[in-house]
Amino acid sequence: MSGRTSTRAYDSVYKLLLIGDSGVGKSCILLRFVEDKFSPSFITTIGIDFKIRTVEVDGAKIKLQVWDTAGQERFRTITTAYYRGAAGIIIVYDVTDERTFENVKNWYEAINQHATEDAQVFLVGNKNDNADLRAVSYEQGEALARELGVPFLETSAKTNENVEELFIKLTKIIHDKAGSKANADKDHGVKVGGHGDKTSSNCC
Amino acid sequence: MISPEDKVRLTKQRFSNVDLLKAAVLQGEYSSDCAFFSRPFLWESVCNNTYGLNFKDDELLKVPKEGEEEDITDISHVKEELVRNSTENDPLSFDSNILDMMKLDIDRLLIDPLFHEERVKQDILQIMYNYNRFQPYKQGYHELCGIIYLQLYKENPDLHKSQIKIQTFNIFSSMMITLVPNFYDSDNLVGWCVSIFNKYLRLIDPPLYDLLIKTHKIESQVWLIRWVRLAFSREIGLDNTVKLWDFMLCYDHDFSKLFPFLIILFLMKLKLRIAECDDNGEVLYLLLHYPHTELSNEEVKTMIQWSIKFLTSPEDKLESLGTVLSKKLHKGIRWDKVKDLDRIKLELKLKRRVQSALKP
Q1: A71 contact residues in B (CB cutoff 8 A)
Q2: CATH numbers and ranges of domains, chain B
Q3: CB contact set of B126 (below 8 Å; sequence gap of 6+)
Q4: CB of B234 within 8 Å of any CB in chain A?
Q5: ipTM of this model?
Q6: Which of A41, A125, B145, B190 suits a disulfide with A95, CB 3.0-4.6 Å?
């Protein structure tokens, strides 16, 4: 991150990453969060897509750079660049497709291989808007999240259930962690723009 | 209105062999501005001539229905030496997950309403299924295939179903000969970005290279992956893309030979907006949402000519060529004196501030 300007409209920047199998609705979650739109059919993500939204958490303006990744890219050379500098990683599965749930552990493994230790992981079961099609229960999702030691939410990009909550909750966890870290070590501040180049560096 | 058959007839009459046809494309003589231009004929002739792939419609295997055994007949025309390779998987088994992924992707092929039709989806699926026997399916193949299919369909909606499928298959497979190893192999893609793209960007436009790679620390593969895997189609719009493909297919048997130079050209066009970005997130957003406009055939030809000039010039001449191009693209700036785009950014900001202060 370049920290060359002093008049910024935000206090911190965090890079968030959406990962998970193809078709679980990662791009739809991102579209809902950033543009408050929903499309039942969404073009396949090739490589990455990228959107930015600024949110306010505890009075701080946080710029979120959300990277949406292609479901087919796992354990490949190219993905290491995606994980680099990610402050938060959201593993998404589809509650109507058991296979995507079974793959969560593989995605978690990918995080362990590529991401930094302090990256906050969040498990999300998407498409919880159709009870008839549900194949993975809320309790199964919750149990897996507990096993992995990560927070959990079920969302629906279609009905906009919990999408905002997901990003705010994750941002708050990251922001709190960064705050404690800054308190513990004042030489590694996360404030942007206040002191020249001393910025959070959670992108690329 | 000239019929598709007459377009082909007139094209053949005017250009008696493929080399003349290719030369006419590169000179801008045979383009969509020409009354009898036939893109399907051009692509098919050039691909057939260059790569020699000429499968027949009855050679395409049917996609197995759920629970059905897969047909394992080999349709490869290429005789290969038998080599004993160790493998942990049964090489004859077909991963049904791959078929599911193909179907999922084809359902999300939104480049044209044509792909909402079940019959068309089945055609694309069958092409992907057959190509998967040569190269394991990767996301993106379906979209390139769809673009080719769409061009053939637009030219002649009455084209017989089996004809459009096999023609698409042959053109698609030909184009993929260089795209797959260069860009769909993850290791090769990263290598290409670093040792080819970054190298030429540094040689042609050092200030832009410094801004992207050193200042903003953007790893090129992050944004280039979609540019190259889909051969520009998501970045610059379909109409511009197919015009570029006409030239690239005619220029070299390596379809991707001009890719680095064309992408650098597109970047250079956007240089001032890139310079104005405040952080790498803004830059990355621009690179992944390239603000394209419709390019005329003449503009595409000029871009191709510049790319060829960059490709064929000695490396020590590239920077001065880049400066000449910058001057053409962004007038009023002494590009030969610009060593750092930060200065340009400040000047642009100052200029804007003065302009807004002068507004009544």
Answers
A1: 139
A2: 1-37 (no CATH), 53-179 (no CATH), 185-358 (1.10.472.80)
A3: B60, B61, B62, B63, B165
A4: yes
A5: 0.86
A6: A125
